[in-house]
Design goal:
Blueprint lengths: L6 H17 L7 E8 L5 E7 L7 H5 L1 H10 L5 E4 L5 E5 L10 E2 L7 E7 L4 E5 L5 E5 L6 H14 L3 E5 L25 H22 L4 H7 L7 E5 L2 H6 L7 H13 L4 E7 L4 H4 L6 E6 L5 H8 L12 E4 L3 E7 L14 H12 L6 H6 L4 H13 L3 E3 L5 E3 L29 H12 L4 H9 L5 H7 L3
Parallel strand pairs: 5-14, 8-11, 8-12, 9-10, 10-11
Antiparallel strand pairs: 1-2, 2-4, 3-4, 6-7, 6-14, 12-13, 13-14, 15-16
Bound molecules: adenosine-5'-triphosphate and magnesium ion (MG).
Length: about 475
């Protein structure tokens, strides 16, 4: 498959790489040979294979700074290492991944709302607690309902409750009898029953909070070991429904505004979707809307109402959106709600780390993490990430603890909840870091073969990766 068109670039890299090593006081002669490969998808890599016997300190060769310097010397080309079957540098020769026209939903990740990928091919995701209320705008056929389904699916996998209003009755059909629904899906006439059940649930939660003397879902769940789920309330075709229910002074708009004000502390995210929002529609709930997602809209005024900026009128592809605070995102595509991929929302690396920490009593201290090979910065980032996703919590003395329940500690995982048999062995030479790296590359759209090539040094081992990645 290797083509001549990358030969010149490969030669120039082979000329530069030893110099960079030498400049860092490393052995340039450690590079044993070069290997140029191109995958059927047109992704080309140059591998520089190092001679293990010549390497006194492998870490010096794999150090972040070394990689950074190599990459800089190669005009910013991505450079990664693999040290599973002998150390090798992999330099990307073909164009780096860019935003795809279609990004298939990659599966649920515990505690996160996965939205899509950004201009550089990186994932855009946020913890549920940061979602707040959501405004979704976009002309017909540009991806609102697909986005709402991806939110719904993730909420369901998270174990949340749902309250859905869908005037046309097409978006959520597949889950019409799902027990997570607070009330039957509301339609053009039956929406008041749905809101009624939401307000009843808010009153119930208010009583529970009073009994525990708390004022937020997080505080309540801390007291009660996490028993109260979040609630996702979605109103499809919101602007149309407002117009047919007395306008902005009417019943629906009034109730939604009240819900917007009263519900956030009870763990409720209210999602309003529509084609053509005007200031009148959004005004009463404006301050409550934390997340704004705008697919292509008719004109810059609508873009301004939804996002507070123009630009969404220039989007051209379905699924492509401007997301407040983020920029352009290709939102994940999900064929239908019934197509929910199975999984427990955890990567093998996360499960493995949790198991090791739980075996030591569950404390997730910096020291414990650093003892497992994470740097201090990585350890702190992990603590924050796990806390925001509900995988860890902070105890009285501010120490982090793994939440065993999220890792099936009390209920042993059953096979239907997970892709991986609990006892299934992982490839022996696949370290946790490598798995995380594989995960990242996978998120960027690289094929399993390419990832297997980089990480394991053998594209033929793609199958082993497939069992290891939560996809
Ligand atoms: N994230 C996406 N990635 C790629 N294609 C998408 C995406 N979302 C939607 N599409 C394409 O656009 C079509 C319309 O999407 P969707 O039904 O979500 O539009 P909509 O905004 O809800 O339209 P309407 O206002 O008419 O209900 C989909 O059937 C699909 O072909
Ligand atoms: Mg729709």
């Amino acid at each position: 498959m290797t083509t001549a068109r990358y030969l010149a670039a490969a030669r120039s890299i082979a000329g530069t790489l030893p110099q960079v090593l030498e400049n860092r006081g490393l052995d340039p002669a450690a590079i044993r040979r070069y290997l140029l490969t191109e995958t059927p998808q047109g992704v080309a890599w140059l591998f520089a294979v190092l001679d293990d016997k010549r390497l006194a300190r492998i870490e010096a060769y794999t150090h972040r700074e070394t990689l950074h310097q190599i990459s800089t010397a190669l005009h910013g080309r991505p450079v990664v290492t693999s040290n599973s079957s002998g150390l090798r540098y992999a330099v990307l020769l073909s164009k780096p991944p860019t935003m795809p026209d279609l990004a298939p939903f990659p599966g649920w990740r515990a505690g996160l709302v996965r939205v899509g990928v950004d201009l550089r091919g990186r994932e855009v995701a946020l913890p549920w607690a940061d979602l707040g209320h959501v405004l979704v705008g976009g002309m017909t056929r540009y991806g609102k309902s697909v986005f709402l389904r991806s939110l719904t699916l993730q909420a369901l996998q998270e174990g949340q409750r749902l309250a859905l209003i869908d005037p046309q009755g097409v978006t959520f059909q597949a889950i019409a009898s799902n027990p997570a629904l607070l009330a039957p899906i509301g339609g053009r006439e039956s929406w008041p029953q749905v809101l009624e059940s939401v307000f009843a649930e808010l009153r119930r939660r208010a009583d529970l909070f009073t009994a525990e003397g708390v004022d937020s879902l997080a505080a309540y769940n801390e007291r009660t070991a996490g028993s109260l789920p979040r609630l996702l309330v979605i109103v499809e075709e919101y602007n149309g429904l407002v117009e047919s229910t007395g306008g902005v002074g009417g019943d629906l708009a009034g109730q939604v505004a009240r819900l917007g004000w009263e519900s956030a502390k009870f763990g409720v995210s209210l999602v309003l979707a529509g084609q053509d929002f005007s200031k009148r529609h959004v005004g009463p709930v404006r301050a409550q809307l934390k997340t704004r997602v705008c697919f292509r809209v008719e004109n810059s005024q609508t873009s301004n109402v939804v996002l507070g900026r123009s630009g969404a009128e220039r989007l051209t592809l379905p699924g492509r959106a401007l997301v407040g605070g983020v920029g352009v995102v290709q939102c994940y595509y999900l064929a239908g709600l019934e197509a929910a991929p199975a999984g427990d929302g955890l990567t093998v690396a996360e499960r493995d780390l949790a198991a090791r920490l739980l075996a030591q009593g569950g404390k997730m201290t910096e020291a414990a993490l650093m003892g497992m090979g994470y740097s201090q910065r990585e350890s702190r980032a992990l603590q924050r990430d796990w806390e925001s996703r509900g995988l860890a919590e902070r105890g009285k003395d501010n120490a982090y603890f793994v939440r065993g329940a999220r890792f099936g500690e009390t209920n042993p995982r059953t096979d239907e909840r997970t892709n991986h048999e609990p006892g299934q062995p992982l490839p022996a030479d696949l370290s946790r870091e490598m798995l995380d790296h594989a995960q990242t590359l996978h998120g960027q759209g690289f094929s399993l073969e390419t990832i297997a090539h980089i990480i394991l040094g053998d594209p033929g081992r793609a199958g082993e990766l497939q069992t290891a990645l939560p996809v």
